[in-house]
Every structure is written in structure tokens, then in C-alpha cells.
Prior knowledge:
Helices cover about 35% and strands about 15% of the residues. The protein is α+β, with helices and mostly antiparallel strands. Helix 11 (about 275-290) packs parallel to helix 12 (about 330-360). The longest helix is centred in the last third of the chain and has 29 residues, at about 330-360. The protein is elongated.
Amino acid sequence: MINSGRVPVEDQQVEKRMRGKGTGRNFFALSRDVWGKLWTIPTNNRLNLLTSYLVLLAGTGADHRLTKWSAKACEEYTGLGKPRAKLAIEELIAAKIIRHTDASTRMMPQYELPILPTDAEPIFLPVGLVTGLGGENPILRRVRETGDAHLLRMLIDLYGLVELDATHGVGLAHVYAGRNEGHQPTARKVAEVGSHCIWGVTAGTWKSAGGDWAAVHRTKGKDAQPWAEFWGRFDLLKKIGAISFEPWLFDGEAKDAEPIMPLDSSGFYAVQNPTAEAELTKAAFDAAQALVTDERSYLFERGGDFFVPLALHRQTPAYREVVKMRIEADTPGRRLAWKRRQALIKQYGDGFVQLRRDAERGEYGQPMRLGTRKGAAA
């Protein structure tokens, strides 16, 4: 159990094992249980308390428990002055959230943080959230400068909602953008050619949020506008560069729909050095154009920001913008999600190229092949 004293002699061997090797990774792990407690313990300033704990946690090693970062690090990375940071750390100690280690001194403090529970997935956060990237002001500092503790809560909660699929973004059940106002479909059938259907996909402007996490952040009270502050904070996180929306094509309108492929809305026709997403989006359009042929190119005038050919049997796809964290925690799960994303881009990219070549030869009956298995079809 965490207490405010120093590590007893009989626990020193445990501490040595706990310390482990190395200085940590590019991410740190926040216990969801501790994150909840930080919102209930007594404090003079909730934002200072939260900021200080996150800084200390970012300074831990591979065990996510021992840190030599202190009020000095709080001042260096977040602009929180030492007197306020020291007070916040004292509050954390008084609440038995952290404690001094036996090696801690007044001039060189060292703290022990709670053990991560094994029965619940922690919130993985990037160290760059605290330290910044490329000399820019850290995101944590920008959030602290707003003076809004609930803005920080929304940011950390969003990190806790990231899913390990190819998008590596916040799940659609929690928040997304892209559905048109009035809940109109975002994809329209442009044409059927051979084994494929060409979809005109429209980037919508509607934003939606739901679930338990959104209920926490909505304004309560009879006279309150429950979503006004929610979306105000959400938009502020976008403005300070903490989050962004990334366009994706999903295999349906449902919130548990599978991601098909990332899209690019930066004007892929004019980009001199296109990204992989831009090249994929253009490959989809080129395949659609080859299927329709020049004689029926007027079909594209019916509207659509993207044109994507998919196998005829597939259900109507949907355009969604996934909430992405600008600085991602470089965990093994994140790297796995990145590999899945790259695999999707390659599979569909190769499939669209093959489809275009078939169409240019006047062959329209061969389904687009996806995947590494010979003969796999969409």
C-alpha cells in the first residue's frame, strides 16, 4: 500500500527489482484507477495537481513507478512554477498517491508511484506530450495554460479511448465526424460495371459523440446546453494541436464498422510529393475512371469528394473522420496498428492498380484482388 513515508529496509530488495534496466521508453502508463482518484482528492488547484502527477509519471523508467523528475521538471516542461508544483506534489503525498523513496533527498527527490494493476488496461501516453517535439511547446503546457482542468481530462480520456485497429484512433462509438447534417448517407452509388460498384463518397460536416465518457464531459443542469462546453473543449484541443480528424472509408454506417482504407482530402491531384494515403486515394479514382470510361465520365459530375470502386456484393460504405491523437504513444500495440494500416494501403493500392489495368483491357468481370493470398477477392 502506498504511504507517505520512506521505503522500509525490508522493501529495498523489492525496490531494486522494481527499478529494472534502462530509462524508460517513449511512452508511460497511467492507471485508470489513479486517474479517477486524482479527481477526488483534496487540492488547492486541480489542474496543478494533475499536471504535476503526469510530469512525474512521464519521468519514470520501464517500470512506470520510480521517478527523479520533480518540481523542477514541472517548471521546465509545463511552465508551472516550482512553488505551485511543490505544493501539488505535497498534496499527492498527503493523499498517499505517491511517496518518497529511501534514496530521496531534499536536493535530489525521488518518488515512487503506484503499481499498475494487472486486471485493467492502463492509459498509454507519449512522453512527448510532456516534453514536446522538435522544440515546440509541449501539448501538456498548452493545455495547462488554458486554465481548464476539464480540458486536460478530456485529452487524457481520449487517449484512453484509442483502439488498436488500423486507424489507431478513437473508436466511432465514442466520437467521430463525417455524417452529413440530417443523417444522410455519405456514399452514393455512381455506377455498376462488371463485378464492381463505383461509390461517390461525400465528406460530411456532422460531428457525433456518445457513450459513458461523453456523459462525464457534458454540462449538467436544467438550464445548461449539455453539448456546448463539450464541443467547445473538443474544438480547443484541435486548435492547440492535440488532436485531429483523419478521413477513412468504413464498410458501413454502424459504429462498429470495419475500416476499409484511409483517404486523403489535401487535393491529391496537385500534390508534388504525395503521401501514401494520397496515392491510394488517387489510385481508387483512376480505377473508377477506367471502369466508367471517358464516354460516361459525366457520372462523376453527380457529386462526391472521393470515388472508390468496391466489389458489387459489398454493402454501402461510409465516410468517417476518426479522431487521432497528434502525438501517439509508441507502444507495441501502436506499432502493430501501423503495420495493419500499411498492409491495408498496399492491399487496396495493388488492387486498384490491377483493377484499372483490367478495365483498360476491357476486362470487367475479374473481382479486385486483395490480400497476400492468391485469388483473394474483395
